[in-house]
Amino acid sequence: MLEERKKIILLKVLVGSNAHGLADKNSDKDYRGVFVYQTKDILSLGFKYKATDWIEGEEDNTTWELGHFLMLATKCNPTILEVFKAPIIEVNDDGLVLRDLFPYVWNTEDTFNAFVGYGLNQRKKFLDDKDKRRDKYGVAYIRTLYALIDLFEDKDFSVEIKDPKVKELLSRYKKGNYSMGEVIDMAEKLTMIAYKLKETCNQKTFVPKIDEFLLQMREKYWEF
Question: For residues 204-214, b (16+ Cβ closer than 10 Å) or e, as one string?
Answer without folding.
Answer: ebeeeebeebb
